[in-house]
Amino acid sequence: MTNDKGCAADDHLVITMFRTLASQVSELVAGSCIVFPNPAHDRVTVTFSMPFNWISLTLYDQMGKELMTHALVRYAKNIPVELNLGALPKGVYSLYIKTERGVATKKIVLQ
Fold first, then answer.
1. Are β-strands 102-110 and 91-99 bridged in parallel, bridged antiparallel, or unpaired?
2. Secondary structure of residue 30 in the 3-state scheme
């Protein structure tokens, strides 16, 4: 198409979608994290199969209330981190994991 001023135009719209790096990183962090036992009774162990400069672990209840935070610096892979959950009632909780490589969430069930 050309208008009266000689400018050409195209009536096609091209949309290109990219998968963001942040979502890929989240899969990397989630895939490296193991939480066990799950379901649990009073404590869980969290390990990561890769090293991180820093890790923040925050536990939330189903209403989104922050219950505890645990910070780690210079985490070497496969080092167990134990979280004592014995004071919490039975239920489903979310462990929010934040690292320099991204974020992830793991579900924890307390029986």
1. antiparallel
2. helix
Q: What are the structural domains, with CATH classification, of the chain?
A: 21-110 (2.60.40.3080)
Q: pLDDT tens, 5-48?
A: 666 666 666 555 545 455 555 888 999 999 999 999 999 999 99
DSSP per-residue string spanning 86-107: TTSPSEEEEEEEEETTEEEEEE
| φ, ψ at 30 (rounded to 5°) | -60, -40
- Assess contact for 38 and 111: CB atoms under 8 A: no
Q: Which residue has the tokens 């939480």?
A: 35
**pTM for the full predicted model:** 0.77
What phi and psi, each to the nearest 5 degrees, are found at residue 33? -100, 135
> To 10 degrees, the CA torsion angle through 50, 102, 57, 40?
-70
Six token digits for residue 65: 């209330």
